[in-house]
Amino acid sequence: MKSRTIVAAAFAAIVLLGGCAKKQEAPKEEAKPAAPAIDLAAEEQAIRTRSGEWMNYVNSKDVASVANGIFASDGIMISDEKAYRGTAEIQAAMEAQLKKMPNALVSWTSDHIRVAGSGDLAFETGSFTVDPDGEGKKPAIQGSFATTWAKIDGQWRALSDAGGENPPAAP
After folding, report:
1. Beta pairing, strands 141-152 & 155-165
2. Residues 38-58: what's their mean pLDDT?
3. What pTM value is reported for the model?
4. pLDDT tens digits, one per residue of 81-135
5. ∠ CA 47-135-129 to the nearest 5 degrees?
6. Residue 87's closest CA among 61, 69, 70, 67?
7. CATH number, domain at 56?
């Protein structure tokens, strides 16, 4: 009986060692789902909507909503050949403009919007009109602008905005 026990123990050891030596397969990696396709046309429309909100804020004299609701916290606005950085400076500059031209009416048209393939950056160009005294006698100013947008926490925000008066037409 002793020899049977020894043979059984040896057989069990061989089976056990054979099982330990068995090659373990690496766990299969799960296929990662493809990134969702960016709907560039929808993002362009979202920027047009934000631009329209911006114009409404300007014409309702709500500069706080422009500075804090439209611009990124580190945004930059270039106006009257000066650069204003951050929402506090942008708001202060807009408040000063509002004091100089309290009756001004502003309108603009987005001529071109290009959204990056990543869907998180965009560039807008267009033309604007500023009537400094609303229905008054001062002539309206025509100009052009360029705005850079970034999608921050799911919301389009202006990173930079610059505009200037168009040069007079050649005689």
Report:
1. antiparallel
2. 97
3. 0.77
4. 999 999 999 999 999 999 999 999 999 999 999 999 999 999 999 999 999 988 7
5. 30
6. 67
7. 3.10.450.50
- Domain count of the chain? 1
Structure tokens at 68: 């804090």
Helix (H) or strand (E) holding 20: helix 2-21
Q: Chain centroid to CA 60: how far? A: 24
Residue 80 lies in a domain: yes
Residues, the chain, total?
171
Does residue 7 have a pLDDT over 60?
Answer: no
The domain of 105 spans 40-164
Tell me the mean pLDDT in the region 151-167: 96
- Residues 133-146, mean pLDDT to the nearest whole number: 90
Tokens 């500075």 belong to residue: 67
Q: CA 55, CA 108: separation in Å to the nearest integer? A: 8
1 C-beta neighbours (distance < 10 Å), count? 5
Residue by residue, DSSP assigns 89-122 as: HHHHHHHHHHHH-TT-EEEEEEEEEEE-TTSSEE
Residue 34: both structure tokens together: 């493809």
Q: Determine if residue 30 is left, alpha or beta; phi over 0 gives left, psi from -120 to 50 gives alpha, anything else beta.
A: beta
